[in-house]
Each structure stands twice: as C-alpha cells, then as structure tokens.
Design a protein that fits this description.
The complex is a heterotetramer of chains A (169), B (760), C (102) and D (339). Chain A is an all-alpha fold and 169 residues long. Chain A has six helices and no strands. Chain C has one domain: Helix Hairpins. Chain C is elongated. The N and C termini of chain C lie far apart (54 Å). Classes of the chains: A mainly alpha (169), B mainly alpha (760), C mainly alpha (102), D mainly alpha (339). Chains A and C meet through helix 1, helix 2, helix 3, helix 4 and helix 5 of A and helix 1, helix 2 and helix 3 of C.
Chain lengths: 169, 760, 102, 339
C-alpha cells in the first residue's frame, strides 16, 4: 500500500461522491435537496482538487462556492419559500427526451476526444498559494485581476439595485 | 539619471511630514487677517510649525530628489484637506484660515521650486549645456507589454522656469484671491479647486513623459471647467464651462492620437528619449505629410484646444465668466500656455517637419491678428484682455513656428507676469466697481484706485512694446527671427508688426477708458468705489515689479552686446532647444540678414507701438467723441469685430444646428431644384422630374405589363414563401429559455463535432 | 498520481458537465437551472485543474480563480434577477418566463 | 516495527486524532460546567454544586439525562435534513480542529512528531472553508424543523456568520502578509521571541477585529441572536431534544474552543512564551486558549445582547471598514520594511 494508491482510492471515492450528488441534484424535484446535493458535489470536488495537487484552489472552492454562493442560493430558496416542482402533465416530455439525447451526444463527442487523448503528467508540480499568487500578480493577469474587482463591484451594485423593493407601492 | 530609486520609498514616505504642516504654519504666518485667526494658542501652532518645517527641510535636503515630488504634492495635499474638511473648516468660521492654508501650500511649493532651480543650475552641464534630473517615484506607472510608462518627472532648464512661473504667479494669485473672494460663501471650494489646478499644472510642466503630461493636461482642463463654472447657478457661467470643456476635448483627441502615433514612431513617450530619438530621424520636406508631420500636427491640434488657437479659440473669451483671479491664473498665465510649452518642449520634433512649423506659424499669426482686431472694439474690460491673451498666445506660436522657441517661452514667461497683472488689475477695478465690467461705465478711476492705476499702467506699457520693458524685447526677438527665416518670414513679420500696433492701441484704449477722463458710472457706484484691500494690492505691486524686471532677463543679443547685458534667459533655456536649433537650418534655408536690418526692424516696432499708443491717447483722451464716429462710418467692419467675426454663430450653425437645419435646408434646396429639376411642364430641365416625365409618358406604359406580371409575380411568390415558412420558424422563438439553450447546445455540438475531426 | 488518474479526472469533469447540461433542460425551477449552470462551471474548473496538473502549468489555476470570481458575481446578480422576477410573476417556473418571443 | 512507513504515518495520525478528539470531548463537557459555574459567581450565585464535589459531575449527569430523553421529531419537519443537521454541525466543528497546531515538534524514539493533526500549507484558508461550511448545519436545522422561530434563527445566524466571516478573514489577512504564509505554524513562529512580537500587540487593530468577529462567529453573547431566548425561544434548535440537542450544543462549544485555539495561535504566539529565554511548550498554548475561553464566558456574563440591525450595521459599517483600513496600513508598512 503506497501513498499513490491511497490518493487514488481517495480520488475515486470523492469523484464518485461528486458524480452521485450531481445526479441527485438533477433528479431531485425539491430545489432545497438539489441545493444540498450541489453542496456535496462542490465539497467533494474541492477534495478532488486537493488530490490533484492544488490546495489553494481547493480551499478557495469551498470558501467561495460552498461558503458564499450556495448560502446565497439557500437564502433565496428560503426567502421565496420554494415548493417542490409539480410534475407537468405530459407536455415537454419530447423536449426533455431530445435534450437528454443531445446530452448523450455531447458525452459521446467529448468523451471520444478525451479517451483518445493521452494526458501527460508533469513532475515537480507546485501549485502552492505562493506560486499561484506570483503568476497572478506578477504577470499580465494583474490587469484581469483588477478588472474582476471592478466586475465584483458592478455586480454588487447591480444585485442591490435589482433585489431592492421599489419604494413606490 | 540623477535620481536613484533606492531611497525613494523612504523619502517618498517622509516628504508628507513637512508638507502636512508647513501650510498650517503659513496659516499662522500670515494667518491673522481681520476675519479670523486660528483656534488654539498661536504659540503652540507656531512652535510645531517651526519644528516640523525644520524637520521637513532637513529631510528634503537629505533626499533632494523628492523635492520635485514635494512641489507637486503640496498643492494636492492642500486640495485634499480643503476638499475633505473644507466645509467643516468653513462652519468653524475658519474660512479665511482655509484660504491661507491654500496659499501656504503654493507658497511653500514656490520656495521649494526656487531651491530646485538653484540645484538644477548646480548640476554638471551636459555637452549641450543641458542640465536635467529625472526624479523617479520608484515604480512603473503603466507596464503593458512594450508600452511602459515610468512614474518620473523631468526637471530641466525649461520645466524649472515653468515651475517658477506657475508657483510664483500662482501663489500671488492665491493671495490676491483671499481678498477678492473674501465675500464669497463658497470660497473654500474655490481655493480647493485652485490648489487642485496648481497640482495638475505642475504635473503638466514637470511630467517626465507624455502620458504624465497628459494627466496634468486633462486635470487642468477639468479644473478650468470647474472654476469657469464656479458660479454655476449663473447659466452663462455653466455654459461657458461646458463650452471650454467640450472644445478642449476636441483638441485632446488630437493629443491622444498624437501620443499613440509618437509611441509607434519612437517606441517611447519619455520626453528625454523622445528628443534624443527625434534627432536621429531625418527631417521631412515641406508639404510631405510623413509620420513626423502627422504627429506634430495632431499634437498641435491638442495645443490649439488648450491654448485657444484658431479654430478652437472660441472657448477662451467665454471663460471670463469665471472669477477674475481664475481668468488671471488659468486663462492668462498658466494653463493656456500649456500648448506653447508642449510645442516648445517637442521643438526638436517640430523642427524636423517644415510643414508642421509652417502650420504652427500661420495659425499663430492668424490667431494673433484675429485676437488683436477683435480686442480693438470690445467694451467689456475682461473681454478685451481675453482677446489680447488669444492674440499673445498666437504670438507665442508664431515664435515657435519660426523656430524661436526660446523667444516663445520667454514671451510665455513675461506674458504670464503682465497678463496676470492686467487681469488682476481689471479684477480690482471690477471689485471696486462692484461687478461692473463695461468700460463705457468707467473712467476717471485714476484718483480713486491709485495703486491699481499705477500697476495697470505698468502692465499696459509692458505689453505694448515700449523699451526697456519685457514686451519690447520679446517682440523684437520674435519679429526678427520671423523676418530672418526668409521665404514667408517677412509677411509674418508684417502681420506681427500690425498686431504689435493694435496691441499697443487697444491696451491704451482700455487704460484710458478705465482710468482717465470722467467717471461715467452710476451714482452709488461712484461713492462705492474704493481701493482694493492689501491682499489684492500686494500681488499687483509684486507683479508690476516682475513685469518691469522680467524683460531684462531676455535682452536680444544685438542689444545685449551694445549694453553689455547678457541674455540670461536665452542662455539658460538654450540647451533645451539645442536639438531643435540644430535641425532648423535644414528647415529654414535662408541666410540671416545683416544686423543693421535687425536694428531697423526693432526701431520700426518701437515706432509703430508708439504710434498705437499715441493714437489711443488721441482717440480716447483728447477727443472721446471720435471713436463713435469712426465706428458709425465703418459700421460693417465695426460690427464684424464687435461680434468676433461671428465665429461662434458659424459654429453654432454648422456644428450644433448645422447638419440638422442649415445643412438640411441646403440639401433640400439642392434636392428640389437641381435633382428634381424640370417636370416637363413647370420647370423644364433635366432633373429627376424631367426624366420622370419622359419615363412616365413613354417607358412606363410599356414596362407596366412586365412589371405587373413578372416582377410582382416574383415578389409575391417570395413573400408567400416567407409567409408560410415563418409559421415554421416562429415556433423556434417561443420565448422559452430552455429551448434557446437547446438550440445553442445543438450548434455547439455541431462545432465540437467538426473540431474533433481535426483532433482525432 | 498517474496519467490515467488525470484522464479520469477529465472524464469526471465531462460527466459533471453533461449532467449540468441535461439538468438545465430537465428542471423547470429557475433556481435549479441556475444551480446546474454552477455545476457546469465547476466541471470546467475541474478540467482546468486537471490540465494544469497534467502540464505543470499554473495558468489553469489562475483561470479557475477567475472563474470563481465571475461565478460569484453571476450568482449574486442572477439570484437578484430571480427574486425580482418572482416578485412580479410569483412563480419560479421557467416556462412562465416566455415574454421574449415574436 | 513491522509497519510500512505509510502505515506508521496513518497510525500516528489516527493516534493524534484520537487524542485530540478525547481532549476536545472532555474540554467540552468541562466547559459546560465551568461556564455555568463562572457565570454563577459573576452573578453572586452558586451555580451547580450538588452532583459530586463542587458539582464537578454535573456534566455527566446532564449527559445521562439528555441521553435518556425522548427523541422528538416534529410532524411537519423534513426528517432527513432534521436528522442530518446536528451531525453536519458537529462534523464541521471537529473538522476545523484538524489544522490547529498545539505545539512544536517532539521526538519520540528519534521520530519527529508534529504536534498537529495535519500541517496544511493553506491552513488559514482551510479554517475559513470549514467555518463557512459550519453555517449549513444551522441553516439546515432552522429550515428542516419547519418552524418560524427556528427558520428565523437559522437565517439570522447564517447571515451573521456570513457577515462576520468577512471581518474575520480580513483580520487574518494582515497576519498572513506579515508571516508571508498561509501555514498556521509559520504564523505562530513569526511571533517567537519577545512578547511584543505577538500579533495581539504588533497588530492590535487586527486583534480587536478578530475578537469581535470571532465572538460573533461562534454565536456567543453579545452576538447570540440565533438563540435569543427572549425573541426566538431557542433559535434554530428550538425543536431539538435529547442527543441531537446535545450535539448542537457540542458543536457550539467545539466551535468556541476552536476559535480560542486559533486566537491563541494566531495572535498570542501559540506555544511561545513571549520571552526569548523560555522554552516553548504546549502548556503555554493551552493556557492562552483557556484565557480566551474565559474571555468568552466573561463577555457572556457582562455584555447585553445586540439588536439584529445593530449587529448587521456594526459588522458591515464598522468592523469591515476598520479591518480594510488596517490592511492598507499594514501593507504599506510591509512594503516600507521590504524597501
């Protein structure tokens, strides 16, 4: 039993977890369950990230997605008090079948590419926060970073403006 | 490079300390105006001031490269303080204190500027005699691929002169404003703007590369907008502000494009490198619109906007809506000369392109003439000065255009003195007349405003070229260098001479209408007239002295040799224009005439100036009734001048309402009479209708059948097809997001499918 | 850690992405649809990470960083939009939002 | 030894986990007693003093009582989530402890053993991640019980944790900048030596922000709005009874202990004594942690509760700006020192 095997096992465990939770999320009619399922997916994904040797992104994944975004989702769900989806009588069935068919086609297409592809494995891989930060702040990405800060600000204002009750009524 | 970035952060850190408190100290220094003093024990304040100022001085001494930054940042600091705490200060009843704080910052920068210039002069001169330092803030401002802009200033012979002018005149005008604005409730805001303007102007002149210069450029534009519209409740003021802003934008487009092209051309925007790269290029021939010419002309467009040259001169006269000190500082002394500064700064570049030089000279001359002629008849005292400014700026560009950069900058400096003096004087007059600006309601103020009168007189003499004051020397210099280039030089010289005469005339017209004769104002104006407070008179006196002495700095060589007065100014600034002057001989290939001619020209300019003065005296002192008669006899010309050549109206018609209405009418007329012309009966001719008539009578009948069955048939068929297909397609656009998403997915799959063919 | 593992990670990301895509079509609740989109984004992140691991190139990590940022902004605005829509139409059924048609 | 190195590693880690787990459990039960006792003294009461000497066995009694109580699951509740919530809460609470170091390295039979379950390179970020997951337990509990008090309690607490996590994180940023690492161990070691190297002194503003934010983060007075008895019965765990209630309580206390441990590590120099001469030892760390715990209890005995709007206002308009400002200052100082 070696470290690599250990990691591999963990990888498959978390991968399966993510996959299963994702399926649950899509299959589930109750949006709140879907939300929790998605959270499980995200957390196990972050574990996968960690196993793929990028602890920084793994942490960020949980902080941003699980910690912020999904809480927002849950808030909205509770605020709007969303009920379970009622099954629509008949109509839309064809559409969904077509959609699933195309989804399968997607899997087929990209899967064929991926299966055929033989990814390499670089040695001496170091994705520590320090390295990522260097790349982020010492290259052209700095401007993108600043731009994203502006984006965040804009979305902040936009979200407030949108969700604010209009005072008139 | 003298500056080393290694100790920059440290010193950049401590330059704040002295700056932060020196103004407060100054506040206490002058700070006992009748209105209010500083709260708290003055002794404590004074002591802290002394200590901190000493500490700051020591630090600046030990890190001399931070001094220019201190010069820059002091006014900014003043602005910040006033902008953040201004209202609080005012509500504390310390408004006057705030004003003095503003003055303090600028005065301190002035002191530092003097120190800097002194230091620059200590540097070992380069082979050209150029002494410069490039203080470096220690970081790169923009680093985008090859486009790198350092955060560095440039202090050399030229910019140090400019800094002296800006801070010197600026501080005087600050002090003046304390008196002038003392009754204004918003004066704190006013002073914060004034400080901000000073900061940007200093950035403009000190900026070590075009982008920094551009920041200052835009900044002063902004401040000018803010200050013109300072009394924004008055619609005319607000409109004038907007006008200035917009017109300047037109110029700025040129400046930006020019910068971009310049970067493509030289691969750098650093001023020093620009000049050194420029010298390596070969000059273009006349009327060859190569890259250099294009760059120069684009930059010159920017200069036109900022320095109010034809065709962008229209904003400057309206800018007089702002407070008079603002007109003095921004629209006479500093900002409007930015264009001249830039052209002179890039003289090496311009001198490579005869085309650009010619354009500059021609535009300058034209503007000079235009401004002078309009100024002849204006009756609003500030309008006269405004147009005089326009024409003097034209003079400066004329100088640059004929390659006399040093003379142009010299004119710039002296003009800053006496034009600021004149504006402040007029401000004092207006102040005394309680807001009256029309000279027809003035007169006989000589006794009432003794100091204003004396100083104004000095200003008038200085601007009308009377030796040995400034005006005479630079006019002689510029005209001579215009004449000696040969070619079109003499014509320019003639124009310049005429302008000189007109200048002398309208200045003394202003003088006489204002100060001599009898008082023509209303009664309560009469007994209300009073000499301005000390704070306003003092700057006038200082500026007057400056106007008298400044001229002696730049005595033309020919006179200097006789009188043994060296041309200090030219010798000091010469190195900056070395590169330009080297290139000039290829541009102006005329053998310089003999010195006797120069003497003659000088004599001519003196005599014609004297003539102008005498004429003004005759018309407005001896026979005040004559001008009216002249005006009526030459009514059309008079109206033309009085209405400023209708330029505003033309712009209004062409650009504002133009294409909507004026153009529309024309087009309509053309359309109706030329295109449509002649419909067989009424208007015979070969317009559309003529042809139409022919067609209607002959061709149409035949084609009708074809038309109805074949053409319409096809059209209807197509229509039918689309009509039916629409029923199919509209179901695609059913507003259901998911359906759209599906179609999106399908397309993506299609694309992936194609792409994967290549991968596999 | 072996190349096959990387490959499986990529396949996992593909599977997640496909699930997200299908989910967008299956679910009629706007919020769930939105969550499916988030899932797709995550699949993309996974692919980025896997590739960056494969080729020892950190740019993938940086891109994930930006995806996270954008996702956060998007979630904020999107949920705000959903709330305001719900306020007007009082439902979260995507089929109800069909004003954008001929 | 017949174990392969990997197995040894795993065994040691398991051992560490067990030890820490036991220590936490006992500390938790101890805390319930100590808190009641101390509060009682602060209010001139006696507090629990019947069971055992000085009532030391009180926690045991409580445990037994809770254990034998009836489990009640409300009819309208969402069973799955209702059951899952306490578990989630406790799990996240325990997960956070994994990266908290409690001493340097000790050597047993020449084998270096790190006094820490796992020394993550992104320890601080991990802490955030886990603490942000902690919200879900509460939200779930509040929502699943299908009761308006619990729902409001859950929403409140999640909103509160949200807002104060921000301040908490910002207060850590400066430490990270100064230590130049996300590794908690590095941050602790950056405070070795004299006492004024402690971040609590060197970075007083950050410390102040941390104290407030941490108090809010663990829902202690004056920020215990989620279970504001006077308004919300018992907040999100109104409907819980018996062991699930005990679990929620445990989660709260474990969170508090974690917060104290983190505070002791990041701000009070962890296992360093504060004088260059004195050898560093886990004892100092434990002492500091206990001091923090006492501080929390003290607060509860002293300070009245905030109003909800005040809480939000304070979090967003005071705490966050202060932290930001301090970040700017600290960054400037760091840069200046580097130059």
């Amino acid at each position: 039993m070696s470290i690599a095997l250990f990691q591999a096992i963990l990888f498959y465990v978390f991968g399966a977890l993510a996959l299963g939770a994702a399926l649950v999320m899509v299959a589930q009619r109750n949006p709140t369950y879907s939300a929790f399922a998605l959270i499980v997916t995200l957390v196990s994904l972050s574990a996968v990230f960690g196993l793929l040797g990028s602890p920084f992104i793994a942490a960020l994944q949980i902080i941003v997605y699980a910690g912020a975004i999904m809480v927002l989702f849950l808030f909205v769900l509770m605020l709007l008090n969303v009920r379970t989806e009622v099954r629509a009588p008949g109509e839309g069935r064809v559409f969904k079948l077509v959609a699933i068919g195309f989804g399968a086609l997607l899997v087929g297409e990209i899967g064929s590419v991926l299966v055929a592809a033989r990814p390499a494995l670089a040695g001496g891989f170091d994705a520590s926060a320090r390295q990522v930060a260097r790349l982020l702040f010492e290259t052209q990405y700095l401007y993108v970073f600043e731009a994203t800060s502006i984006l965040i600000l804009a979305s902040l204002v936009g979200a407030i403006a949108l969700a604010k009750r209009d005072p008139s009524p | 490079m003298v500056a080393h970035s290694n100790h920059e952060p440290a010193s950049g850190h401590d330059e704040g300390a002295p700056a932060a408190h020196a103004p407060a100290g100054h506040g206490t220094g002058h700070g006992h105006p009748p209105e209010a003093g500083f709260a708290g024990s003055p002794w404590v304040v004074l002591l802290t001031f002394i200590l901190l100022f000493g500490a700051g001085g020591w630090l600046l001494r030990s890190f001399p490269d931070t001094v220019p930054f201190a010069i820059l940042l002091l006014p900014l600091l003043g602005f910040t303080v006033l902008a953040l705490f201004g209202d609080a200060i005012r509500d504390q009843g310390e408004g006057a204190g705030a004003c003095w704080l503003a003055c303090g910052t600028v005065l301190t920068s002035f002191a530092l500027a003097v120190a800097t210039v002194y230091r620059v002069m200590q540097f070992p001169a380069g082979d050209t005699g150029l002494r410069f330092t490039q203080p470096y803030l220690g970081f790169e401002w923009i680093a985008a691929g090859p486009f790198r802009v350092q955060m560095n200033l440039l202090v050399d012979n030229l910019s140090s002169v400019m800094v002296l002018v800006v801070t010197g005149v600026g501080s005087l005008i600050h002090i003046y404003s304390v008196g002038y604005m003392s009754h204004d409730p918003d004066r704190v805001r006013y002073f914060s703007y004034l400080n901000l303007f000073t900061f940007f102007m200093l950035l403009l002149v000190l900026g070590g590369n075009l982008p920094l210069l551009f920041v200052g450029w835009e900044g002063v534009g902004l401040c000018s907008y803010l200050l013109i519209g300072f009394w924004f409740t008055k619609k005319s003021a607000a409109d004038a502000g907007k006008k200035a802003f917009i017109v300047n934008r037109i110029g700025d487009v040129g400046l930006i494009l020019g910068m971009i092209l310049a970067f493509n051309l030289f691969g750098t925007l650093d001023l020093v490198d620009l000049v050194s790269n420029a010298t390596s290029l070969t000059e273009e021939s006349l009327w060859q619109f190569g890259p250099i010419t294009t760059v120069c002309l684009l930059l010159f467009l920017g200069a036109c906007g900022k320095s109010a040259q034809i065709p962008l001169h229209v904003w400057l006269p309206d800018a007089m809506e702002g407070p008079t000190p603002v007109s003095a500082l921004i629209h006479a002394a500093t900002m409007v000369t930015a264009g001249v500064y830039m052209v002179a700064r890039l003289g090496a570049l311009y001198s490579l392109s005869p085309t650009a030089m010619t354009v500059v000279a021609v535009i300058g001359t034209a503007t000079a003439v235009l401004g002078a002629t309009i100024a002849l008849v204006q009756t609003d005292i500030k309008k006269v000065l405004a147009y005089s400014t326009v024409s003097q700026l034209g003079y400066m560009f004329l100088a640059c255009g004929v390659g006399a950069f040093a003379a142009g900058v010299f004119h710039l400096m002296t003009h800053a003195f006496f034009k600021a003096l004149l504006f402040l004087g007029s401000g004092s007059v207006i102040h005394a007349m309680s807001g009256e600006q029309d000279m027809r309601n003035m007169g006989g103020l000589r006794s009432k405003l003794p100091w204003t009168h004396r100083t104004m007189l000095v200003g008038c003499i200085a601007i009308a070229s009377v030796p040995p004051l400034a005006g005479f020397f630079w006019k002689a210099e510029i005209l001579w260098s215009a004449y000696k280039i040969g070619g079109w030089g003499p014509y320019v010289w003639g124009m310049g001479l005429a302008v000189a005469a007109m200048t002398a005339f309208y200045m003394f017209r202003l003088y006489h209408m204002t100060f001599s004769g009898t008082f023509r104002g209303t009664e309560e104006q009469a007994h209300h007239v009073h000499e301005s407070p000390r704070t306003m008179v003092l700057p006038l006196q200082v500026l007057a002295v400056g106007s008298i002495l400044a001229g002696l700095l730049g005595v033309p060589a020919i006179l200097g040799d006789v009188l043994h007065i060296p041309n200090v100014f030219e010798r000091f600034t010469e190195p900056v224009f070395e590169a330009a002057h080297e290139a000039l001989p290829q541009v102006f290939t005329a053998a310089p005439p003999a010195h006797t001619i120069e003497m003659a020209l000088m004599a001519a300019s003196v005599t014609i100036a004297a003539f102008g003065i005498a004429l003004a005296w005759q018309l407005f002192q001896r026979h005040p009734e004559v001008p009216a008669r002249i005006a009526s006899s030459a009514a059309p010309v008079y109206r033309l001048l009085l209405d400023k050549y209708y330029v505003d109206e033309i712009y209004q018609a062409v650009f504002v309402r133009g294409l909507a209405l004026g153009g529309g009418k024309t087009l309509h007329a053309v359309d109706r009479y030329v295109v449509d012309g002649g419909d067989g009966e009424v208007r015979p001719g070969l317009g559309v209708n003529g042809i139409g008539w022919f067609v209607r009578e002959v061709v149409a009948k035949g084609s009708d059948v074809w038309d109805r069955y074949v053409v319409d048939g096809l059209v209807n068929l197509t229509a039918a097809i689309f009509d039916n297909m629409s029923y199919v397609f509209r179901s695609l656009q059913n507003g259901l997001v998911q359906h759209y998403a599906l179609s999106m997915l399908i397309i993506i799959l299609f694309m992936i499918g194609i792409g994967s063919r290549f991968i596999l | 850690m072996s190349p096959t593992l990387i490959q499986h990670a990529l396949l996992l990301s593909l599977a997640l992405f496909a699930i997200g895509v299908v989910g967008v079509f299956l679910r009629r609740n706007v919020i769930t649809v939105f969550m499916c989109i988030e899932l797709m984004l995550n699949a993309g992140n996974l692919a980025f990470i896997a590739f960056s691991r494969a080729w020892g190139n950190l740019e993938g990590q940086v891109l994930v960083f930006f995806v996270l940022t954008v996702a956060a902004a998007e979630a904020a605005v999107g949920l705000a939009i959903i709330i305001s829509i719900h306020r007007h139409k009082d439902t979260l059924d995507v089929d109800a939002f069909n004003l954008m048609k001929w | 030894m017949s174990l392969t190195p990997l197995q040894q590693e795993i065994a040691i880690s398991a051992l560490k986990v067990l030890v820490i787990f036991g220590a936490l459990m006992s500390l938790f039960s101890g805390m319930t007693y100590i808190e009641r006792r101390v509060l009682a003294f602060m209010q001139f009461r006696l507090g629990p003093n019947r069971t055992g000497p000085f009532g030391i066995l009180q926690p045991v009694a409580d445990g037994i009582k809770l254990f034998f109580k009836e489990e009640v699951i409300p009819a309208g509740a969402n069973k799955l989530l209702f059951v899952a919530a306490p578990a989630l809460a406790v799990v996240t609470a325990f997960l956070a402890v994994a990266v908290v170091p409690y001493g340097g390295t000790i050597h047993i039979k020449g084998r270096p053993i790190l006094l820490q379950i796992s020394d993550l390179e992104v320890g601080v970020l991990y802490l955030f991640a886990i603490s942000s997951l902690g919200v879900y337990g509460i939200v779930m509990a509040g929502w699943a019980a299908n009761n308006k008090y619990t729902l409001i309690g859950g929403l409140r607490s999640s909103a509160q944790m949200f807002s104060y996590e921000l301040a908490l994180g910002l207060s850590f940023v400066t430490l990270i900048m100064v230590a130049g690492s996300f590794r908690i161990r590095d941050i602790v070691d950056s405070q070795a030596g004299w006492i004024w190297h402690w971040n609590a002194i060197r970075q007083l503003p950050a410390f102040a922000v941390f104290l407030v934010a941490a108090t809010a983060e663990v829902n202690r007075t004056p920020f215990d709005l989620p279970e504001a008895e006077t308004e919300l019965v018992a907040g999100f765990h109104t409907e819980y009874s018996s062991m699930r209630f005990a679990l929620l309580q445990m989660a709260e206390y474990i969170n508090m202990i974690t917060a104290s441990a983190v505070g002791a590590n990041l701000f009070l120099g962890g296992w360093h004594f504060g004088l260059p001469g004195v050898p560093s030892s886990p004892l100092w760390f434990i002492g500091k942690m206990l001091a923090f715990l006492f501080f929390f209890i003290w607060l509860r005995g002293t300070v009245p509760r905030f109003r909800y709007d005040q809480l939000m206002h304070f979090g967003w308009k005071v705490l966050v700006p202060v932290a930001m400002a301090w970040i700017f200052v600290a960054a400037a100082l760091v840069l200046w020192r580097q130059a």
